[in-house]
Amino acid sequence: MFREMRRKKQILSEEEAIRILNKGTSGVLALSGDDGYPYALPISYVYADSRLYFHSAKTGHKIDAIQKCRKASFCVVEQDLVVPEKYTTFYRSVIAFGSIRILEKEAEIRRAIELLAVKYHPADTETGRKTVIQKDYDRLCMIEMSIEHLSGKEAVELVNEPPVSRS
After folding, report:
1. Distance between CA atoms of residues 151 and 1, nearest Å
2. Sign, CA torsion 40/109/101/149
């Protein structure tokens, strides 16, 4: 169903792809938009248990697109170092494909927003997070993307180099 990558030696392991998802702070969510046009938007996210979670307003282009088509892809670029003298970039990135849905159950919504809050403000207290979440809760929509296929790739120049600290 999903295409195999042509350049096999540039494929990242699943563990490395997940590490990139956990480390990243934003990516590009691609949906099927109006009139057959792709709709790709930069968005913050959190990864947990083979799922990606996003927050949104309750209305708008993103919500309309999700309601029309549940298929989506999401891309995170960890590295994109331009190397002018070689006319290339040394990149490392991940693409996830899957089905996307708007969360409706209270427990799912609360869990997803809590995961997102902890990722972006890990030093906050549980009480602090709950206060902020509750303030905007009525306007909040949480979205879940279940990953069906995950692939990561890096520039051929990075394949044979010793790994740089990837914490």
Report:
1. 14
2. positive
Q: Is 63 helix (H, G, I), strand (E, B) or coil?
A: helix
For 28-86, the pLDDT digits (tens) are 999 999 999 999 999 999 999 999 999 999 999 999 999 999 999 999 999 878 888 88
- Which contiguous run of DSSP H or E holds residue 152? strand 141-154
Q: Please count the other Cβ atoms lying within 10 Å of the Cβ belonging to residue 47.
A: 24
Give the amino acid at 96: A
User: How much is the pTM?
Assistant: 0.88
Residue 85 CB neighbours (<10 A): 5
Element (H, E) at 117: helix 106-120
* CA separation for the pair 22, 48 (Å, rounded): 8
Please check whether residue 121 is in contact with residue 25, taking contact to mean a CB–CB distance below 8 angstroms.
no
